Amino acid sequence: MSFELTILGSNSAVPAFGRHPSSQVLSLDGNKFLIDCGEGCQLQMSKYNIKRGKLDHIFISHLHGDHYFGLFGLINTLNLNGREAPLNIYGPPDLEGMLQSVLGDYSHRLQYELVFHGLTMDSAETILETKDCRVSTLVMNHSIECLGFQFEQIKQKPNVSTEKLQALGIEGKTIGQLLAGEVVKDLEGNTVHLEDVTLPSSRGCIYTYCSDTARKPENIQRLNDTDVLYHEATFLNSRQDRAEATGHSTAKDAAWMAKEAGVKDLLIGHFSARYENLEPLLEECQASFIRSHLALEGHSFELSTEGLKLV
Ligand SMILES: [Zn+2]
Ligand SMILES: [Zn+2]
């Protein structure tokens, strides 16, 4: 099963140096998730060949404009494109009223249903389960109520052991019969069930998106099983005072969270407009967590339990 992340925007607050506000797309087989929707998101989707029509679920972390002002244009475009399938939007409860007041009467002329899911902002919860994925929230530590999102891949297929199959001399069509639930015979004529040749199911990949937040040690436990962590790193540590005053993290904070949680790879983003060159942010992270990477726009990463790989 493919689990792929494309970065559409990774700047904070205002666009700068060609960088856009927060937005990324996570594709998992049949599901396409949009995580935050900063201004310019739909243009970035066109630029990087993300098919808008395949989008069914949008997750908004909080109500700072750099995380949701792209939503209105996108809703309009989907309508003009003839969308008919419902569109699910998950976000802070106040977002519903904002959508209604911006869209006004136009919301009644939409050809598709806009399904709004107001989220609990002060405690974690599971908000979506599909056959391939489970999505849950984490509470961030920001200047206003803000959530992170955790995406867990659900493995459906049995974890068949090749060694066990070989030891029993089961091959070819017989494997297919076993997978279909049939009882087969091994070389010596003994009956074999599917559970005789499977290992405990390995878990799927977990990707966690930590949106705007100051360092939050209380979330370390929730991040323990995370394979790939996106964590904001708005400032360099030299601006720790500014980070604290605005509820943001430094690159050093992001690396600390990744290291304490024991994740495989760290992606940093939400870069302050004060930095044209992002390398110092990366270097600051890598000084304590070597597998750190910049969330650069247009980059796609394949995610797995081994970590991330640039596609
Ligand atoms: Zn922000
Ligand atoms: Zn914010």
Could you explain the architecture of this structure?
It is a single chain. This protein has 311 residues and is an alpha/beta fold. The protein folds into 2 domains: 3-155 and 202-310, 4-Layer Sandwich (Metallo-beta-lactamase, Chain A); 159-198, no CATH class. The chain is 24% helix and 28% strand. The chain is built from 10 helices and 19 strands. It has helices at residues 41-47, 71-80, 94-103, 106-109, 162-168, 173-179, 220-223, 240-246, 251-261, 279-286, and strands spanning 3-9, 23-28, 31-37, 57-59, 87-91, 114-118, 126-129, 133-139, 147-153, 159-160, 184-185, 191-192, 198-199, 206-210, 228-232, 265-269, 292-294, 300-304, 307-310. An 8-stranded mixed beta sheet has the order 6-5-4-3-2-1-18-19. A 7-stranded mixed beta sheet has the order 7-8-9-14-15-16-17, with helices on one face. The protein has a two-stranded antiparallel ribbon with strand order 10-13. A hairpin with a 5-residue loop joins strand 11 (184-185) and strand 12. Helix 9 packs parallel to helix 10 (279-286). It is globular and about 70 Å long. The model has no long low-confidence stretch (mean pLDDT 94). Bound molecules: zinc ion (ZN) (2 copies). One zinc ion is lined by residues 62, 64, 142, 212.
